[in-house]
Prior knowledge:
Layout: E1 3-6, H1 13-21, E2 25-29, E3 36-41, E4 51-59, E5 70-77, E6 82-88, H2 92-96
Amino acid sequence: MTIYTVDKAYVGFEALYRMTVNETYFVIREKATMKYEVVDTNININDLVGIVGDNVIRLADYVSKYPIDFRLVELYDVENEYVITFLTKTDIRELLGVPAHSHKIKTSMNLN
């Protein structure tokens, strides 16, 4: 399994789409100027690990370069007192081998 982490200064949606098609994973920081709509809200909010938002989004500007939905996760950084927003191509259930239809996933340090 390959997971790429990409700085928010580089958000090449065509490259991210190729990664998606090639079944690799990525985590990137949200670019402030990115426009999107929220199409679904996940229930993975967990204050113990700092997850304060978890949504499925669709790009408004770059849909031709990345025609599928992203997952947008917001984490609260207690030490620096701000929210960090990440994008990924997939639901965490796929990474953990949990069936996509399963809603019974714990979003804490113990993922059993």
